[in-house]
Write a structure and sequence with these properties.
Layout (H helix, E strand, L loop, with lengths): L6 E9 L9 E6 L4 E8 L4 H19 L8 H22 L7 E10 L2 E7 L3 E6 L2 E4 L6 H7 L5 H6 L19 E6 L5 E5 L1 H4 L4 H8 L5 H14 L6 E9 L1
Antiparallel strand pairs: 1-10, 2-3, 3-4, 4-5, 5-8, 6-7, 6-9, 9-10
Helix pairs in contact: 1-2
């Protein structure tokens, strides 16, 4: 039963990949507070790294300090934290012209007992592996994925499109942002994957599913998934954050 879930464990690995000179991904989590975040920054110079770090730090700071215990109140608190992160990035860029246009994607997982919320802005993703089957829980805010959802482009065409890197929503690029919010019930044995697109552009869902189905400690599993993405090309920064629900 979903209500049997009483605790979570987590592990994460990030890597700059084989092509990029620096790592603009960022992650953070607090098992005690039930908050897990992955961000993929963008912008010239070090702006992407700054944006992703601000977003992770701000969301964790607000959601660990507020001590929102009531499940009914948590989604609103999480959405407010993401909006505050957006304000912090946007304001920083307004004050410093060298950071103009910086932004970041965000995918976050929040847990309260068996209640799970997934929030995302951009094309970083959350997946759930349940009883051996992988399912994507988020929708990419990208130009090609929106065309696919509208039936104007096939998934195969989307993979080949020169516009596949264009995202339609990000933190910090506009004064306001609205995250997608999804609610689920966790079951013992569920494994949640939060990742940047440096992982999903290199590995198919079928490959990710096969990798996550191996019996390994979370730390080793995270490292092996990142290494597989590097071996497959490693064209971008790669981040893998795994969260397991346990009975």
């Amino acid at each position: 039963m979903a209500t049997a879930v009483v605790r979570y464990t987590a592990a994460a690995v990030t890597d700059r990949g084989r092509k990029r000179p620096s790592n603009e991904d960022a992650f953070g989590f607090s098992v005690e507070a039930g908050v897990y975040v992955v961000c993929d920054g963008m912008g010239g110079a070090a702006a992407g790294e700054i944006a992703s770090t601000i977003a992770v730090d701000e969301v964790l700071r607000l959601l660990t300090r507020r001590n929102v215990d009531a499940p009914a109140a948590f989604p609103e608190a999480a959405e407010s934290a993401i909006c505050a992160a957006n304000d912090a990035i946007y304001s920083r860029a307004q004050r410093n012209h060298r950071l103009s246009g910086m932004g970041t994607t965000l995918v976050a997982l929040a847990t309260r007992e068996h209640h799970v919320w997934v929030l995302n802005v951009g094309d970083s993703r959350c997946y759930r592996l349940r009883r051996g089957r992988l399912e994507q829980l988020t929708h990419d805010h990208s130009l090609v994925e929106e065309q696919v959802r509208l039936g104007r482009m096939t998934p195969r065409e989307a993979l080949r499109s020169p516009l596949k890197n264009v995202i339609t929503r990000a933190l910090g690029t506009q004064s306001q942002v609205t995250p997608d919010v999804f609610e689920f019930e966790a079951e013992p044995g569920d494994l949640f994957l939060l990742c940047s697109d440096g992982l999903t552009r290199e590995l198919s869902d079928a490959t990710i599913q096969a990798l996550l189905n191996r019996e390994l400690p979370l730390e080793s599993l995270s490292a092996s998934v990142v290494e597989a993405a590097k071996k497959a090309g490693g064209h971008d920064n790669i981040t893998c954050l795994l969260v397991r629900a346990q009975g």
